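Notes from hallway chat w/ T.B., transcribed later so I don't forget. T.B. wanted the structure written out for a chain they're using in a teaching module, and asked if we could keep both sequence and C-alpha cells in one place. Agreed to drop them here.
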Amino acid sequence: MGSQDIPLNETGRRQAQEAVSFLQNEGIVHIVASPLVRAEETAEILAASMDVPLSLDDDLKECTWGVLEGKPTDVDGLLGPWLKGETPKGAESAASFGKRVLRGLNRALEKTGPVLIVSYGGVGMAVKRFMGVPLEKLANAASYVCVPPQQDDHPWTVSLLEV
C-alpha cells in the first residue's frame, strides 16, 4: 500500500497481458500512467500490444501514507477517518491527494480519447469520488469504463469491464 516504487511481479505481468484481450476492443487511443515502475511497466505492456502512445504523469501516483507506507493496513478502517481529515504522520491528506489526482485526471482527459489511465486503487477511488460514484474497494487489475455525462444534469456512468 502506498507510493513505494516496487516492481511489477509475474502475476501483474500476466494480468497486463490478459487485459490486452478485453481492452483492445475499447477504442483506446492513448494511455496515461503513473511513473511508478509497477504502473509504468503495466502501461508499457498495454501500449505496445495495442500500438498506442503512452504518457506518464506524476500526479497519478498512489497516495503517500507516511508511517503506514508499505505496511499492511485495514483499508476500511483507515479510509473513513482519512477522508474526514485524520492524516497519518507523514502522509498526504485526502484533500491534497484529491487535488493532485484531479490535476492528473484533467491532463489525461485533455488528450484525444478514449484514454486509458493506468494507476492504483487510491487513484481510482479518488476519480470515482469526483464522478459522484459510490466508493468501493477496487481489485487489482480491475478495468473500469468511465463515460462523462452527455448533459450537465446527468451523472457519469462507470462500469466494470468483465474479463
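Follow-up for T.B.: The longest helix spans residues 94-109. Might be a good example for the class.
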